[in-house]
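U., I forgot to send this yesterday:
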Amino acid sequence: MPFPVARPRRLRQSPAIRALARETTVEPGDLIYPLFFSATLTEPRPIATMPGISQLPVSMAAAEAREAAALGLGGVLLFGLPKNKDADGTSAYDPEGPVPRAVRAMKEAVPELAVITDVCVDEYTDHGHCGILRKNRRGILDVDNDATLEVLAKAAVVYAKAGADIVAPSDMMDGRVGRIRSALDGDGFIETAILSYAVKYASCFYGPFRDAADCAPKFGDRASYQMDPANAREAIREAALDEEEGADFLMVKPALSYLDVIAKVRASSLLPLGAYNVSGEYSMIKAAAAAGMLDETRAVLEVLTSIRRAGADFILTYHAKDAAKLLG
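Result:
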């Protein structure tokens, strides 16, 4: 209908009416909180590039689980900083490593909390890459895809034995979802779900995370296995392959620069879809707010709403605790 009969502002005239017309909502249960557990710390160690976030001793795992549950979060995602690193990332599948120990403590404290474990070896290799290195046919040192699958499968089984509800491979090796599914099923963990970092780009926005997880590559970059930021059609292919291999959830990472990709993957798959609001995105808001450039509360809620609006069913975000308190 033409003006003046059609007046969209009628739906914006009060908070109550705006709430009735709201298309997208964010709830604490939509948010997953990433945590960094260290095998060597006895006290939290603040991460300089991620204000408000710290590396944590494993002794704090139970308390973190209780707080996450009290806030109504959808779950937690665990990363580990081991005592020792080597070329093959063998600490990734140490049953007494920081992640398995943290999982056991969390599940004992809050059995109903969804505990997700990242499955990758970049935190566990002395070179910082996401797999075992070999010279390729061109004589260049690169990650050996198929050799890396075996390490990932071993790690996933160890995390499942510790009690993880979901394992989340983030390495971007071809075939890793199928190999992990086979390993889990072969050990009797048919109920352990896989959240695949199906669409993970070679992004500059991971910088602060590499400080948090002590996993910056010692040479080169990850462009030979993580996706080219210029590609969107490739995202659909990657997601479809992981779905065929047995993924239970899909993820797009990062989120803010890839809202269009989130929407495309959402349209192409019926699986639950997550998006990772990564460290650089988090730290940008923190830095801008500290400089007085924007209102942090409004910025956080606007960012999370945009990710949900693009099609994400849940969001992995370092804002999770603060956002849950605001939303609660």
